[in-house]
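Lab notebook, design round three. We kept the backbone fixed and only want residue identities now. Task for the bench partner: fill in a sequence for the structure below.
Input structure tokens:
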């Protein structure tokens, strides 16, 4: 049930051009003050003061090998590129039951960058302008994890996630019997315009305070969750959404949810114009 809806953020504040170099960056916005941003207005690797890399096989039995080479900045954009190429798995162990070790090779590569141990935030308005690829097997995401604990007790917020023709907005905490407990909403990508919609840049946003987390795309509310209901169910009383979170941007391939990429033409890209974080002015 919708407890309340924070007033919408008009896209006029963010412009309609492709490059953040052409957009005036507001320092204040509707009672919020800009506290951090990456406009990606530089060439080369993502800024190491903000971002580090995930490497190798990470999660969800995904097909890609994460490596730094697939993420770079040019023309005012962060590019995360998925490629069909073969990489030898240095952790390969014949006969292993662990999926990260029983694959001798990876047949795709991509990148995942994160602000862990560099930047984290508790509450605020998070805004990302980006363009996603919706081809079969693509699994782009912009999401957060809590700084403390093991997943899912860390808490997770999927501000933007796409796979198998679905655009998703999700949250997860630790549920009963050590299971993951989700709050989630989806929209079929065809209902938004399909390939034509995906060919353009869109604005994803999270409004997060001590009471509510609301997730939007282009000012359309995707998910609104009462934070009080997302307490970890392990008896500790810890609410993972009342702690700082760090941010991830990645383009995964295949795996448990991503679908079959075998007939998809590569390379594919997740392009990000900017990420901005605002917090309430005190």
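Proposed sequence:
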């Amino acid at each position: 049930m919708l407890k309340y809806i924070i007033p919408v953020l008009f896209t006029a504040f963010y412009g309609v051009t492709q490059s953040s170099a052409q957009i005036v960056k507001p320092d204040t916005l509707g009672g919020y003050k800009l506290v951090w941003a990456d406009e990606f207005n530089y060439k080369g690797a993502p800024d190491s003061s903000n971002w580090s890399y995930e490497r190798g096989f990470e999660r969800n039995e995904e097909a890609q090998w994460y490596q730094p080479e697939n993420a770079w900045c040019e023309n005012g954009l962060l590019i995360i590129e998925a490629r069909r190429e073969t990489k030898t798995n240095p952790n390969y162990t014949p006969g292993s039951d662990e999926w990260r070790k029983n694959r001798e090779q990876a047949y795709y590569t991509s990148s995942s960058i994160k602000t862990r141990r560099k930047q984290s935030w508790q509450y605020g308005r998070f805004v990302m302008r980006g363009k996603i690829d919706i081809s079969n097997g693509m699994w782009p995401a912009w999401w957060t994890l809590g700084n403390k604990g093991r997943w899912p007790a860390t808490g997770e917020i999927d501000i933007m996630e796409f796979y198998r023709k679905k655009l998703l907005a999700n949250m997860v905490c630790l549920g009963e019997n050590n299971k993951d407990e989700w709050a989630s909403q989806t929209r079929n990508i065809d209902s938004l315009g399909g390939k034509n919609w995906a060919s353009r840049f869109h604005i994803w946003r999270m409004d997060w305070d001590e009471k509510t987390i609301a997730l939007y795309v282009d000012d359309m509310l995707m998910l609104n969750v009462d934070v009080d209901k997302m307490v970890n169910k392990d008896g500790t009383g810890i609410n993972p959404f009342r702690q700082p979170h760090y941010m991830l941007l990645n383009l995964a391939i295949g795996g448990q949810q991503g679908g079959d990429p075998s007939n998809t033409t590569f390379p594919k890209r997740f392009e990000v114009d900017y990420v901005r974080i605002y917090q309430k002015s005190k």
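Keep this in mind before ordering anything: Helices lie at 189-192, 194-198, 255-258.
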